[in-house]
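re the bet — no i am not wrong, look at it urself. input seq straight from the record:
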Amino acid sequence: MPMMEKILSDITSLFEEAKARSEFDFMLTLINYRGMGPKRTATNLYEWFDAITHYAEVYKASQGKEKTRVGILLYSTFFENSDFYNIIGSLCRVKLGFKGSSYLFWKTRKYERFLGIGEKQAFLAELLDDAGKQNIIKFFEENYVDEVRNSFFHSSYSLTDDRYTLHNFDPIPEVGMSFDVKTFLYPKIDLAVGFFEAFRSGYLNGFLSYQEDKVVSGRFPGPVEATILGSKDGLKGFRIKNSVQFYGEWKDSGIMYDEKYDMWTGFNIQMPMANVDTIEIFDSLARYEAKSDIVRSDSEFTNLLDKVLERRRDDEMARATDLLVKFADVRYNKIEPEKNPHKRNGMRKQAIQYYEKAIDFGKKLFDMAEIEDVIAHLRKDIVGADTQQASDSGST
């Protein structure tokens, strides 16, 4: 199957599988509610949809340097959008049986900055792998080139009809300082356009699939029966009947699109941010507890540890400690079977990093003496291995 077909299959199936696993959380992911606001400006997706569609039309109609300039603008803008990554990550979480998040890529609970493009893609890698979407991972790994995006947005490049040359940047690995746009760049742009079109269709068709009201089960935050509100224009929100009580009287709650003011509004929602954080951290810890190892990237796991450390709740700190020891043990157990001495030393260092962080998290909750002994043993092995390698090098 060609790469484009594999990518499109993964995107399409991700929307379908998330909806099949929890329609309530699928619907919440589409709305991506952060607070009251107009539908088309409460998210950056609609401007992104319009902009990429426009750039793609100009790109296909252009030739030479004009085609390349517009193509790189399209390419760079495609990879920038924050809600795009947020929706993909949340769909993965929903497919896996957890709740999505409107704040998936904030670095920590303090919300001091967004993650960068590379950080977002690394953050997504483990989620995508868990969700069985390896072709999306491959797309990001093989098609996003940081040097192209950065040199273009910093106007640090030169251009002919056939070649793009970097200035004031390190060479692109295995490519160099200059490349043929037709063989290196245009295929990546074409894949980005295909990915974009599939994602846009999945998102907008998700909205349009709700032509009438539908009762579903979900968690908000506890178990609820909710009515997803549909219309001829698609999804209009949801309502949970008699879910909150004010002065002895039961009231409905939910999120609804107000036709008159063209605005998403929440009503009678009693879920303070502290509870949202607790739910998301609990889900993330549970997901890693069910995993035997981290196989793609520890970026998301590290982000989770940062959030746990900020809150310093004993229950979360204890669970994080257990996870760090578990993943350290995995690396420790791989040392003995490994025959390559350089790889063995790398595994020792990785295990030490996890064990040391486990001590940081668990030292006030557990006796960490046994872990400290393991670290000392690993450090001794590293010194011995380094001494042996230096001796072998000297003898040759």
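see?? The mean pLDDT is 90. told u. also Residues 214-267 form one domain. so pay up
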